[in-house]
């Protein structure tokens, strides 16, 4: 019986059958959308915590507005006035942060912590007093702490839509200015942009979204709706425009999902459900994001280790050949045989590891196994090995002769040294090789050359 | 009737119009503690001006105070005879590379285009014309192939070149550069130097905070030697002396010996 009720509820929710559900989901989506946009700029400006101060500092204002309204003949709660109270005390909280930061040596994070907790404490105390007074229906005020989308009225949803429209419009108009402000405020200032004014505009928009969202998400968790969507969006793109749009969509999706769950299970507060929904999207993005995601990182790390291991193997075989039969290193005719034991001895690798690597190389047609433990390069394999060895030795040479170049500035994993150093540099390196090794063309390993270090490192031209 | 003070101020401003930067009696302090005292400087046009001095000497502060990025405790600064706020478009600024978050979601071209924002104006989108200017600036620093590369995928030297290209895109007359050679590779250093010489040839003025005393005589033809006050300022050949270096750097002998070598090697 009960499960039937549940399915019926779910069906009505999914089909948006109820007018009320439509209102709630529309309001939540539009709120998440606006918060997702603003969150991007605030996160990039590193001011995201401002929203937390505003939302917490709003509580005493809400309760105070309620007390004032309770004295009126009509009584009851009038949302715009409650939000006005929230706005005033929220701004007051921000002002306090500014004063503490400017006129004392306390740093911003500590100032945020002080103001946020003191105002919230004050609000909770006021709330207790109101409940003692038994005026009006003070019970509804708690929705501002934990958030309740179900109580959303059509007027509230339109208020949210209005706020979101303002946010979208201003962010579209000032997109270029906001991007500059967030990326390099000093440069912006040197160009005569009113950095302070732009910051105020940005902050005003965040305050707007925060205050409007208080009732639905609750003041404790409002910050999450501003931080999690942009943080998740960052995994999917490297372009600010796209990030803002993705973040807005994630915010809207998270808010709708959270509000839906809360609608099905009225005991579950909407704010918490919205945050959990957003975090699931975040976790998903964190795992699967292209280029920045965890799985991509692990896969490319593994691919890189495989590639490096293969290069080591190729070099080891080549060097074994170099030691035993240097006359057969030219890529004509059949390359000489090398034994597995030679390889393991030269590298200190385990038999098992070498075998694994050899099988992989054999699958790629670079090595032929002529009955264990003997093996030889295929002609292609030898060619490939020559390139690897040459690049490797040129790199080592580069590091020796240009030791003053920070290693972080060169990508040593590049397949083609020319792609990184430029043809002229490579020619120069090959030249200096040829001179010091007197072997012409192909470079010897610098480990075996007896190069006087002092001479090469002082040569800085 | 003009008072003497007014008269001299008037004369001063007349005179300062010919100077890209004229600093008059400037003092700058952080938290009531002065970090730059009584700076008086007239920087001539069309020079590569080096700003040198030990750590904490106020080199970056001097630059930021000229650009109105930090408040001055006293004194005034004129850019071609007018305050900075009226001359923003004639001034380009290359901040220290570490001053921004290189993980920011923009590509190299986006950053360079920021140099055009003032020319584009409020609330207008970036047009193709401005993007062309930005691309040309990237070309001049040899970074055109990296135009659409995410900025955190660039090496330190490449990031510095992008910053430089952004300044070029501003098409300014005076270029302020805070340690443009810090942490860049040899190739980038050459590119930057060629570029600075190009700018000088076009009659532009460049001020750069610099650390490597050995390259000072080669790179800069005018020098500001700073240690909380101006120890010496003038053509490098006249002011880059052992004596002035001693006054600027105090007892840091290892530095001095290197510098003395550099002085000795300077072609006269």
Topology:
The complex is a heterodimer of chains A (461) and B (268).
Chain A: H1 2-14, H2 19-44, H3 49-70, H4 79-103, H5 108-133, H6 143-146, H7 154-173, H8 175-183, H9 185-190, H10 195-217, H11 222-233, H12 240-264, H13 270-288, H14 294-324, E1 338-339, H15 340-347, H16 351-363, E2 367-369, E3 374-377, H17 379-401, H18 417-421, H19 423-437, H20 453-458
Antiparallel strand pairs in A: 1-3, 2-3
Helix pairs in contact in A: 2-7, 2-10, 2-11, 2-12, 3-4, 3-5, 3-10, 4-5, 4-10, 7-10, 10-11, 11-12, 11-13, 12-13, 14-15, 14-17
Chain B: H1 4-16, E1 21-30, E2 33-43, E3 48-52, H2 59-66, E4 74-79, E5 91-94, H3 108-113, H4 117-120, H5 128-140, H6 156-169, E6 174-177, H7 186-201, E7 205-209, H8 216-219, E8 222-226, E9 230-235, H9 236-239, H10 242-249, H11 253-265
Parallel strand pairs in B: 3-7, 3-8, 5-6, 6-7
Antiparallel strand pairs in B: 1-2, 1-4, 8-9
Describe the overall structure.
- The complex is a heterodimer of chains A (461) and B (268).
- With 461 residues, chain A is mainly α.
- Chain A has 20 helices and 3 strands.
- Chain A has helices at 2-14, 19-44, 49-70, 79-103, 108-133, 143-146, 154-173, 175-183, 185-190, 195-217, 222-233, 240-264, 270-288, 294-324, 340-347, 351-363, 379-401, 417-421, 423-437, 453-458; strands at 338-339, 367-369, 374-377.
- With 268 residues, chain B is of the alpha/beta class.
- Chain B is 38% helix and 21% strand.
- Chain B contains 11 helices and 9 strands.
- Chain B has helices spanning 4-16, 59-66, 108-113, 117-120, 128-140, 156-169, 186-201, 216-219, 236-239, 242-249, 253-265, and strands at 21-30, 33-43, 48-52, 74-79, 91-94, 174-177, 205-209, 222-226, 230-235.
- A 6-stranded mixed sheet of chain B has the order 5-6-7-3-8-9, with helices on both faces.
- The longest helix of chain B has 16 residues, at 186-201.
- The relative contact order of chain B is 0.15.
- Chain A binds chain B through residues 44, 173-174, 176-177, 179-180, 182-184, 186-187, 189-193, 234, 237-240, 243, 402, 404-406, 408-409, and chain B through 64, 67-69, 85, 88-89, 91, 93, 95, 99-101, 104-107, 110-111, 114, 117-118, 120, 122-126, 150, 155-157, 166, 170, 176, 183, 185-186.
